[in-house]
Amino acid sequence: MNYKSITCAVALATAALTVQAGPVLDAVKARGQLVCGVNTAAPGFSSVDSQGNWSGLDVDTCRAVAAAVLGDAQKVKFVPLSSPQRFTALQSGEIDMLARNTTMTLTRDASLGAVFAAISYYDGQGFIVPKKLGVDSAKKLNGATVCLQAGTSSIQAMADYFAANKMKYKPVMYDTTEATQNAFLSGRCQVYTTDMSDLAGARTRARNPQDYVILPETISKEPLGPSVRRGDDEWFQIVRWSFYAMVEAEESGLTQANVDEMKKTSTAPQVMRLVGTGDDMGKLLGLDKDWSYRIIKQVGNYGESWVKNFGPNTKMNLPRGLNKLWTEGGLMYAPPIR
Q: What is the pLDDT of residue 115?
């Protein structure tokens, strides 16, 4: 095949990709609303106030997809799901995507009919105890009564850690985040174990947060991220790249406040692709040219979402740690949008 033939073949393949639309994308457009599964109550990730307003990093991930696909980040129906419900809801089509601070594991990614689109938060499992217990290390928890949430990866990590350290414990299971946290805060168990970010969220719900201490040990890797039903590659790509657009926007210095000015003035190819004045990346996703501009304008970049939901002016007040950009010593890294 000569060079001209190769060029034509590539052009035809690219054209074919631009006209495809998966069934979930068609359904979302026809409905005019994205249905997104989230946690019932996870400060920083997804929580709802008394007025019915949702906020959190996972909430922003859902809104980014809605901005890209529907043109409006507010066109999202949030479905609160417990841990045991979440994958069933995704498999059955009750939700279009799952963004519920869920750990990506081989088992979940390969056997539950779901596929993870990205890692949106690097976390690890830990322990919180009442300060009055006088415990300063997880290795002093032998014989403890431990609150656990059913259907979470925390159960296996907990069992592995205690077995490795030749310790015993009494598990007490609850179905929802609220029930598990309430049980711990009311003294029904001595220890609560889950992701470090969730422990910080649980402590904010205590009447006196200073009465609780998060122990120093991190016993597992917990890469959290959104997932979609297996088998719809087009929808998978949209969810994946909607999140990565937020990360690349932060890398490129694009914010909600400056994106309009940058759209008018920037000549940097990377920025122009993100604001819709450069190469058309949207056509490869079945979207328009301004898909990523709308994400930045309506939702913000990854760092803006982080500060708003976990930063120093929030009750969570978490260090960004591994979730810093790779350019700042963290693990958050977006494949190039080009």
A: 97
Distance CA 237, CA 4 (A): 30
Q: Are residues 84 and 51 in the same domain?
A: yes
pLDDT over threshold 80, residue 309: yes
Asked, for residue 15, whether it belongs to a domain, the answer is yes
Instruction: State residue 3 phi and psi, 5-degree precision.
Output: -60, -40
pLDDT tens digits, 100-157: 999 999 999 999 999 999 999 999 999 999 999 999 999 999 999 999 999 999 999 9
Residue burial 32-45, b: 16+ Cβ < 10 Å; e: rest: ebbbbbbbbbbbbb
SS (H, E, C) 23-40: HHHHHHHHHCCEEEEEEC
Domain count within the chain: 2
| Dist. CA 219–CA 323, nearest whole Å | 18
Helix ranges restricted to H, 112-191: 154-164, 177-185
Task: State the Cα–Cα distance between residues 90 and 102, nearest whole angstrom.
Answer: 13
Within 8 A by CB and 6+ apart from 274, the residues are 245, 248, 249, 252, 254, 292, 293, 296, 337
Tell me how many helices (H) and strands (E) the chain has: 13, 14
Residues 176 and 285 in one domain: no
Instruction: Give me the domain span that covers residue 138.
Output: 125-220
Among the listed residues 31, 63, 71, 25, the one whose alpha carbon sits nearest the alpha carbon of residue 46: 63
The C-alpha atoms of residue 119 and residue 333 are separated, in whole angstroms, by 10
Residue pair 113/230 in contact (Cβ under 8 Å)? The answer is: yes
**Cα–Cα distance between 235 and 95 in angstroms, integer?**
13
CA–CA separation, 198 vs 194, rounded Å?
6
Instruction: For residue 195, give the CATH number of its domain.
Output: 3.40.190.10
Q: What is the DSSP secondary structure assignment for residue 127, as one 8-state letter?
A: E
Give tens-digit pLDDT for 43-54. Answer: 999 999 999 999
Tell me the C-alpha to C-alpha distance, in Å, between residue 174 and each of 37, 152, 171. Answer: 20, 11, 10
Report the Cα–Cα distance between both ends of the chain, in Å, rounded: 27
